[in-house]
Amino acid sequence: MNNQQIVYRPIGIIHSEHTIAEKTPIQPVYARGCKGRVEVFEEFQDGLCDLDEFSHIYLIYHFNQAPPVKLKVKPFLQDVERGIFAVRAPGRPNSIGLSVVELIRIEGRILYVDGLDILDGTPLLDIKPYTAKFDLHNVKKNGWQDDVDHKTAEKRGKRGY
Amino acid sequence: MNNQQIVYRPIGIIHSEHTIAEKTPIQPVYARGCKGRVEVFEEFQDGLCDLDEFSHIYLIYHFNQAPPVKLKVKPFLQDVERGIFAVRAPGRPNSIGLSVVELIRIEGRILYVDGLDILDGTPLLDIKPYTAKFDLHNVKKNGWQDDVDHKTAEKRGKRGY
Hints:
Two copies of one chain form a homodimer. By secondary structure, chain A is mainly β. The first copy, chain A, has one domain: Elongation Factor Tu (Ef-tu), domain 3 (Beta Barrel). Chain A contains two helices and nine strands. In chain A, the strands form two sheets. In chain A, strands 2-3-8-7-4-9 form a six-stranded antiparallel barrel. Chain A has a two-stranded antiparallel ribbon with strand order 5-6. In chain A, a hairpin with a 2-residue loop joins strand 7 and strand 8. Chain A starts with 5 loop residues before the first strand and ends with a helix. The interface between A and B is large, with 72 and 73 residues. Strand 1 of chain A pairs antiparallel with strand 1 of chain B.
């Protein structure tokens, strides 16, 4: 299975105010007030039906400006190398990004969202609703993140925003 | 960008007790007690470093047994057609699955997890930590799911499990 190829095609494109990777907030929680538009291509517009009644959605996208893959990297919030699967950094074996953003409204095939931590021009792969029934989990351990205090996380997470 | 191809390769394979799609719980919340193993291929093992200190992880995977794509489908929990991006069903334009499972322990390159709602043999694309800082959102509206009562959701979500 190692060499199997799985091929996806963009279903849309993400438009944001972020054009420089180093100045882009690292997560939606550090990107409050970063508004933007998610454009879904016309052929997929019917799939957006009923989505406007959700307050939060997952955006799954392709990190098309990801740095080279490294299996150990320093996370944005801490100066200690960690396994790539224990962090959310973009230089991953498969460059898949995941963000939960706030959905403000939908006009046709354009989603207006808040909390965008995604670079302008990023290809969109999927949208899923984020819901109280499915997505709120009783987290007991947050690994290395438990050692990062709130103030440090806010400062480093926003990256100057 | 519509015709751009994005190519990923499996980083591992998911081993579960679920071999029949119609009898597989639809979400981890309805799969408590469904234990299984996530095997990560040897070449990616170093990326697992530090992951064992998280209680919950995202598995991102390829629905390799997905039904044909439909832009409107009835969700598992309700008999009303909805847009595919307003549900979590597998027959999506890009067949990407997302589950938050409980991480019990890691031995070498094998992750032992609970809450598996994934078919046996499913190709794994990515692992990310699920954390209190990044992933707990203040959900205000859950769309059509707000109309599904808890008892109905439990019954239909477990699919006989």
